[in-house]
Amino acid sequence: MNIPAKSPDSLVSSGIGSAEAEANASCARLPELGAAEMARGIKAGRWTSSELVEAHIARIGQIQPLIGAVAAPLFEEARRAAAEADRRTASGEPLGPLHGVPVSVKESLDAAGTPSTWGLTGRAAPASEDDPAVAALRRAGAVVLAKTNAMQLLMGCETVNPVYGRTSSPWNPAERSSGGSSGGEAALIAAGGSPLGLGTDVGGSIRTPAHFCGVHGLKPTPGRVASRPPAGITHVCREAAEMASTGPLARKVEDLALAMEVLAEPETLQAHPLQRPGEIDPARLRIGFYTSDGILPPSPSVERAVLDAAEALRARGVPVKPFRLPEPDLALHEFYALMSAAGAKGIAETAGTDALVPQVEGTRRSFGRSRTANRLLALLLRRMGQNIAGTHILPYLGRKSREELGKAVQLRQAYREKFAAEMERQQVDVLLSPPFLTPAIPHDHSLAMTYEGSYALLYNYLGMPAGVISLSQVRAREAASMRAAGSRDRLVQAAAQADLNSAGLPVGVQVAAAPWREDRVLAVMDMLEKLFRDRPDYPAGKFAAASLPIANK
Question: pLDDT, tens digit, for every residue of 9-34?
């Protein structure tokens, strides 16, 4: 997709945040601000919504040819909405919490008048109304600037499809993926094209791109943010779709918290109120951490980031201790069982005559085999030394009967109760863990690295809120991992290959809490942001888009 580029002034890295700094920000530097800062500046008269929108349009013109994050630019609509926002500001009318602030939304989420293709050419008809979460942003005064690219059928940890092409990581566009399936959203925010956006997450689709691109993301408890079942999408059964959430991505934790105030369903707030990060003392929370799911440990950089976060909290007086995961392999197996329950028929019904990208085509073949065939293939793989795929993936794939689905749902509920009891037994309120097996993977590497670990999907299976906060970068010695030495398992080898030449890529830490306790997740993320943001390897994508490699193009 070609978006006409303007010639914006060079962005200059700075620590904008104080009122004085905000007042002196030039239009060219406005994209460095967070969403809450932008809203405060509009209300104080330091800049207008139109100035913010134009600054972001200029920035998108600069970055789009490099990262391919935008699927549908809504610039003219945004200009009209910004002009109306400025009229309301000048007239003294009541202003919403995101009044005049430009935002972006994932392509799969309906925005009236635009298609939600899910990466399929056959889904070109425009939506007649907004998705509930998009409508909530507009009610809060936000200006929708663009829809962002997503993985075809939202099935994978990269972002590529035949309609809008590929989205790349702003940290290394030529070689590294933005993650998926909300990869366009994370990449655009990391590059300064939007301060705040919406993604969706059924197995890590908000958190993986946040980790890959150096931004923050939050997967709320399912049901906390309203959603509407998309028309014509049948490749995921209802029991699996129940694990999905719509949630925000941003460069600053305060923007995630503000977004949750806007997005959360009033009924859930009555039953489960949300406190703001400043209203919760993390020192009164009990923090547990783990660095491995017991199946395949993460990259050295990812493990180190979790340990660094745990130690930083401990040094500030927060109780922190190791946590022992109860049966993580069970959660992994049953997640795959649920996600594949509609089989290849479900994917075919959704895709119609559309061609599938290789990543999705491989999934279709795996889902389409009979369970007997998958088990026989798994046995053969184990004999060949491919233990992870043969033990933890293939045996659980394939179409399920209604009776089998009913039993799977009962098993999921039993595991959720067991996990909650284990958190109480080990006296833990919040958990720190890896968000993904490796840093940002090379383009198309998910074709080889089909195991991502149970790190993100565990919390979809549990129905727990989980966020990713980007805290560090891969160090040179961590990019030369030898973990594949002596292993015949191709998935172990693929993970090791992803580590090579990864120095400088961002690394995140996952933060999770009990259902409906997004406020605890955000409180810990807020404290970690404060503890890490002045460190030299704190990922620049959250602080100033100017310091990303693309800024010099």
Answer: 322 233 334 454 444 446 878 999 99
Residue type, 390: G
pLDDT tens for residues 383-423? Answer: 999 999 999 999 999 999 999 999 999 999 999 999 999 99
57 half-sphere exposure, CB direction, 13 A CA radius: 19
Angle, vertex CA 23, rays to CA 19 and CA 26, nearest 5: 135
Instruction: Name the β-bridge partners of 218.
Output: 467
Count CB-CB contacts under 10 A for residue 327.
Answer: 14
- Active centre residues (catalytic): 106, 181, 205
Rounded to whole angstroms, the Cα distance separating 440 from 429 reads: 29
Query: Whole-angstrom Cα distance, residue 15 to residue 17?
Result: 6
Q: What are phi and psi of 182, to 5 degrees?
A: -90, 40
DSSP 17-67: -SHHHHHH--GGGGGGS-HHHHHHHHHHTSS-HHHHHHHHHHHHHHHHHHH
Q: Contact at 8 Å (CB) between 17 and 38?
A: no
How distant is the alpha carbon of residue 464 from its chain centre?
Answer: 15
Q: Residue 364: how many CA atoms within 13 Å on its side-chain side? A: 19
Pull the structure tokens for residue 106: 């994932």
Q: What is the pTM of this model?
A: 0.94
Give the count of alpha carbons within 13 A of 491, CB side only: 21
Check the CA dihedral 198-204-210-212 and report its sign: negative
- Calculate the average pLDDT of the chain: 92
Work out whether the CA dihedral 480, 481, 486, 488 comes out positive or negative: negative
- Find out whether 192 and 69 touch, Cβ atoms under 8 Å: no
**Look-up of token digits 């406005």:** 30
